[in-house]
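Tokens help. Our protein:
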Amino acid sequence: MAEESIRRTPGTPCWVSLMVRDLAATEEFYGALFGWEFEPGPQQLGPYVRGLLDGKEVAGIGRLPGGRRLPTAWLTYLATDDADKTAETIRSCGGTVAVGPLEAAEAGRMAIAADPAGAVLGIWQAAAHPGTAVSGPPGTPVWNELFTRETASVARFYESLFGYEAEPAGPAGTDELTLRLEGRPVASLHGLGRALPRDRGAHWMTSFEVADTDAAARLVTDLGGRLLEAPRDARRGRTATVTDPEGAVFTIVCSGAR
């Protein structure tokens, strides 16, 4: 997971964002955990900031509209050359479009949608803002994966949307696929069957690189977050699943590849 040049092939995860109730407290949490600084971003959907690492944009955080009881969750955006056309394809393939497509000032054009299993995803047509500017160093998003009930039908949806090549992955007997674009792995799908959490349903998960998974997991709890899955060794490195103080779930991983 070393730092690499940013790719914008349609279908590539290109940005992650989070909508929260307490923006200031969330900035404090992620600033302390990942070393992010913040600058204002487009305000079309309300107060919004971009997290910066060494001056480079890595993620966005916005404030939820007042009075709406919406869950806080990290949202994975997939790159597209035409947000309107992609939104039409989502609808025709059994998904739904909840927001947009709409302009985000000069930054680009976006939509928020859900796949047929209900997992929420973002669509981003870049203009002035291409998306995550760096991936690899600690504090940056390094992988995105979809957890769903079963992968077969969902994989057909994403293949129709962006032309992914889906190949089996994981141990024998597991329902796991890797999505590739131009031969390059860009995301993964996990079919959990009845083990899919009922309170969350199908969902995309973002992994952030850290220098030390065990130390970062302890820091999460010290900062008011929760540890959902203790640090463990996995194929991508030492991993833990955590939440921020508002309950947004994400993964921290030390890949050991730097």
Observations:
- The first strand starts at residue 13 and ends at 20.
